[in-house]
Amino acid sequence: MASFPTSRFIVDGNRVNRDREVRGQHQPPTSPKRPPAKGPLDHTGVSASVEYTPNPLNFLFEPSRYVPMVDRIIQYLEPTDIVKLRRVHRAFTHEGYETALRTQWNINTALQRYFKSPIAFRNRLEKSSGVISGTFVLDFLDRRRGRPLIQVIVDDRSPHKDQLVAYLLEEGYTIASEDRSDESSKFAGSDWITRARYERQSSPIHQKTAISIRYTSTQPIVAILRGGVQFNTALANFVTAIKIYVPFARWTFCNSCYHTINGDSRDPWRRLLRTTGRRPGRFEYRDYVPAYWSRGLDDGRTWVIPLNTDGVDAPRQPEYVLDSTSFGARAEFEGRVRRVVDIKALQHVGLKYQWAVCDDTAFLKRLQECVDKDAMESEEEKRQKDQNLGGAQSVSTEAFVPAKFYDELVRDWLAAATETMDSGW
Q: What is the pTM of this model?
């Protein structure tokens, strides 16, 4: 029985000889020979005259493209995946990150829902020593349009706290409610004294926008981290006029969980956090070991995102003051399981700015030594009278004005202490 040839093949544009197909003896075509390289070979074995083609991903960053490809790609990625994207192409480290800040994490765009001039609001926020915290910050980081509510934390001792309220009234907000912290909330560890809610109805078809201001008895950063205002780690993020801080980024975004801070099971935000896909976090093995984990806003575990500062006034105190904040963390299993964050406001007459540290005992002693030493070295007739009255041990500059301030020394002390800290969560 005769065998019939099969269909013809086309390889590299040339027909294969039919004789290869007869008698059922099909022979695979041989690959074409690569043309010899032109020019001498370098130490890698590649011709030096060969021209390399550009990286095929470079087109993503061309501004002339009609579709913002990088922005579209990042839109579908989680923050942790965006960090990993830097391994794909070097340009994602800079161009991709800057693109995300301009479009998807643009604080001015997010604040336009509440204010006609977001820049003016940020300036008033800095002037009043306030920060934004709570659900607005979490929704902003999740790139989700959430509840029309902004929570602002303001130090009740700030001399310019009324400027923020005056700006809200200029924006058309009216006060809706106001109450004071009762004894039960103080017993639970609350740091806020007064809470005021301002609302505005921009149009009949739009939902009301609300601004909730909580006046605290201490610095906002201290009240937030130790659970006196926010009850869990997922809501402990805060926004200043120039930066965003995420102290517990690994839990909030990498593990999609949260832990209760210095609170109990009556956390009013648990149901809301459940809608974001976050669950109560589990305690790890090292949490059961009686250890004390030291943390800080500059330890690399805190996500610090700089914001666009065009038109924003310079901060009243240097950035390193807030960035050097340190706090201690531990797990407590007596009574109810919870996270305990230890942080205190460092107050001394020798300081010009507001600091927050884990333990202020050693800092106060060293500051007192510096103040006493400089006071004793001055001439007796120039020495202030209140030095002999114990005014140097006061936290108020009205009682004693030192010869100089020692904020630079505090920064050096904190940096030295950080080198000996145990790395924690």
A: 0.76
